[in-house]
Design brief:
The protein has 531 residues and is mainly alpha-helical. Helix content is 74%, strand content 0%. It has two domains: 416 residues, Up-down Bundle (Sodium/glucose cotransporter), CATH 1.20.1730.10; 79 residues, no CATH class.
Length: 531
């Protein structure tokens, strides 16, 4: 047990406060019951600060904190491309995608596909997303979260997963998206505070009494290779982050799939009180993304030096050599009592927030896109109840699947990218062509989804040395080509499926444009400095 009584008190206080606030924001006026809009979209009342905070809380979880920090240890700052490029993608989503989604007043991404391409495409993607969120996303967060809990407390992995899942259910299942989004404000504050503290203190340890900046300078000077954003071809991790192709290739496809068309991310924006609030929320999230490598990747890089004999091997290098995902938990052990509890609470906050977000999205898709299509004559209360039951079932399934699926993997973060990469090119191609090319047909949409999987498998085994990011890019281009060709030879069912853009405004406010300019300037500076 590496947590003191004070640490445990801090974690317990966090849990009690979070649960109390969740129940308070979930309360209903006497005699009233939640509608599906209340439960799944927070009554379309979310302000920008709740949207931005909730986006980050949903995104930053065990696979980022544990997995990405582990990649920081193994690879270095190059893994930050997943964070910094996401900031630019969030801006593009805010400007070009949100106006379309909010104008169509949709609950889910499959609902949009139903409006554009019909029932078959919607059902196919509904089943896929339910499977992905349950068998891949939920299991990854549970497994990595339990791994961190085990390292710090000795709690058995299965018990840790069950406890994390139960806590996420307890505070989110009753209130739905509103409970998740509003409590995420607390989660993000704790997450950023905890992350900044661990980054600050690790730099101080490396500085050996000369200060935090001296520690960062020493880290940068003695292991400069860990601060390269663009890897050389002879780098061991080139197959995952292939140099300049991280800027030009399929990483953008993964970003658009995740930030633009991923239900458990975009659902917060769909619950906004207005388009302007949704757009401000996304640009706020983009600002926060610029911070994430500091609080996630930097501690992983610091672990490289902290494990060196000349530093006195202050952390267990053997444990890190065995599994790089242990980097963040090992660094956490160095924190003093009380602060260790705060950082552990931040980790728990990130984990349970993502679990709650995923469960809410699984329940939304199953209830609104699958169950409601089958039982369309039930009451709003009935659908909300089905949503709650679905969330419970999903987390139970994930708890039992996590160890068999992920227990023997070296890096769960890279494995998650690999799994989602099989369908991501098809998803992005379907949405982009569906939104911006009227001639795209339902047959073309199905063809693109099929090609995405088939081409990925073919290249995975036929060209095993091809970098993952390049493979995703080639498959995406293939999907676009197939979509164009099939659309030329297949008839559209009717013109009512068109998503017309003539009545949609893509204009943004001057304040939004200023914030975008600042974000882009910071991104350019970061890549110039760490190229």
């Amino acid at each position: 047990m590496f947590l003191s009584s004070l640490d445990l008190f801090v974690v317990a206080a966090y849990a009690v406060i979070l649960f109390a606030i969740a129940q308070w924001v979930s309360r209903e006026p006497k005699g009233e019951h939640k509608s599906t809009e209340d439960y799944f979209l927070a009554g379309k009342s979310l302000p920008w600060w709740a949207i931005g905070a909730s986006l980050i809380a949903a995104n930053i979880s065990a696979e980022q904190i544990i997995g990405m920090s582990g990649q920081g240890f193994a690879v270095g700052l190059a893994i930050a491309a997943y964070e910094w490029q996401a900031a630019l993608v969030l801006i593009i989503v805010a400007v070009f995608f949100l106006p379309i989604f909010l104008k169509r007043e949709i609950y889910t991404m499959p609902q949009y596909l139903d409006q554009r391409f019909g029932h078959t495409v919607k059902t196919t993607m509904s089943v896929y997303w339910i499977f992905l969120y349950t068998a891949v996303n939920l299991t990854t967060v549970l497994w990595l979260g339990a791994l961190a809990v085990n390292t710090l407390t000795g709690l058995p992995l299965f018990t840790g997963m069950a406890a994390l899942g139960a806590f996420a259910l307890a505070y989110s299942m009753y209130g739905g998206l509103k409970a998740v989004a509003l409590t995420d404000i607390i989660q993000v504050v704790i997450l950023i505070m905890g992350g900044l503290i661990i980054a600050w203190m690790t730099m101080g340890i490396i500085g050996q009494g000369d200060g935090v900046m001296a520690g960062f300078k020493r880290l940068y000077t003695e292991i400069p290779g860990k601060f390269d954003m663009i890897l050389d071809k002879d780098h061991p991790a080139y197959s995952d982050l292939p140099g300049i192709w991280t800027l030009l290739g399929g990483l953008w496809v993964l970003h658009f799939s995740y930030w633009g068309f991923n239900q458990y991310i975009i659902q917060r924006a769909l619950g906004a009180k207005s388009l302007q609030e949704a757009q401000k929320g996304l640009v706020f999230a983009a600002f926060l993304k610029l911070l994430m490598p500091v609080i996630i990747v930097l501690p992983g890089i610091a672990a490289v030096m902290l494990a060196m004999p000349e530093m006195g091997s202050v952390i267990d290098g053997n444990a890190l050599a065995e599994k790089s995902d242990r980097a963040y938990p090992e660094v956490m052990k160095l924190m003093p009592s009380g602060l260790k509890g705060l950082i552990f609470a931040a980790l728990i906050a990130a984990i349970v927030s993502s679990l709650a977000s995923m469960m809410n999205s699984i329940s939304t898709i199953f209830t609104m896109d699958v169950y409601k299509s089958w039982k369309s004559d039930r009451t709003e209360e009935h659908y909300v109840k089905v949503g709650r039951i679905t969330a419970f079932v999903a987390i139970v399934i994930a708890v039992f699947l996590a160890k068999p699926l992920l227990g023997s993997l070296e890096s769960a973060f890279q494995t998650l990218q690999e799994y989602t990469g099989y369908i991501a090119p098809g998803v992005v191609a379907v949405f982009l062509m569906g939104m911006f090319w009227r001639k795209t047909t339902s047959a073309a949409a199905m063809a693109m989804l099929i090609v995405s999987i088939v081409a990925n498998v073919a290249l995975k085994f036929g060209m095993a040395d091809l970098a993952f990011v390049i493979r995703i890019w080639l498959v995406f281009l293939a999907c676009l080509a197939v979509g164009f060709i099939v659309s030329q030879f297949s008839a559209k069912a009717n013109d009512s499926n068109d998503i017309l853009l003539s009545d949609i405004s893509f204009a943004t406010t001057s304040g939004f444009k200023i914030m975008v300019a600042i974000i882009i300037a910071v991104l350019v500076a970061l890549y110039v400095v760490f190229w």
